[in-house]
From TrEMBL:
InterPro entries: PAP2/HPO, PAP2/HPO_sf
Stated name of the protein: Phosphatidic acid phosphatase type 2/haloperoxidase domain-containing protein
Keyword Membrane: yes
Transmembrane segments: 128-148, 160-181, 219-240, 252-274
GO cellular component: nuclear envelope
Any one Pfam family match given in the protein's UniProt record, by short name: PAP2
Region annotation Disordered: where it falls in the sequence: 1-84
Amino acid sequence: MPPRRSRARERNSVLSRPEFISLNPQPLRGGGSGSGSGGGGSGPSRSSARRPSQLKHQTSQPSEEPTDSGSRDKKEPSKMPEEDCMQLNPSFKGIAMNSLLAIDISLSKRMGVCAYTSSSWGGCRSMVTLLALTGHGITWIIGTIVCLTRSNTLAGQEVLVNLLLALIVDIMTVAGVQRLVKRRGPWEMTPGFLDYIAMDVYSFPAAHASRAAMVSKFLLSHLVLAVPLRILLVLWAFLVGLSRVLLGKQHLTDMICGFALGMLHFSLMETVWLSSNTCQSLINISTLSWSPLF
């Protein structure tokens, strides 16, 4: 019995030392004994008393973050279904438009038989390019100005001045719409030098088709032509619009919309037709600038 008591006393005396105070359970149970002891024992007892609260505070913070993230995850799905429904369940109009665009692109690529020299009709590329050049805006503007300088009749000058204004309106309108839509052709091709001058960089609407339709309708309305010439003029307008599709620079819908826009330009010029006196005044103003040249 005495040896056991001596061993217990030695153990208590060792645990009462400052360096082993953290191993002694008594200061943790009773806070007063640790605070009433000396300076060496009060410091470790306070630190040991603060540790459980710090651990609780540290463990409580991670537990709050998952709850916040979980609540955010629950709130976010409630905002997304509207956009998901628009993407996963498109309307019938959207499906129809996408289907028509896909068909348009597929047919336009198949009809681009003169897009490159290695294409199926690559040998006719130069001929088709020359046909497209006859409907270019720069070609028609230069030709109209030359004819206007050579014309001596008031009726001819009136028709040519209105045709020149119609060509300028057509070029500006088509260029503005192309800049807004910015649709590329079915084949990736860089525009030519004349295309940059005429501001015919994009595909929609077809500038050549619009100009050909407007010019042919204009000439058929204001010139007296025989029936074969009328048929050839209409055929020329159609082939000019089709040439750009064969060259792979425009789609079928671009050509169709170009024809419609050309007819609209013709109707617009008919409503704002300039009289002979107005045309003469414009010619007199313009001749002051180029009279030294002619």
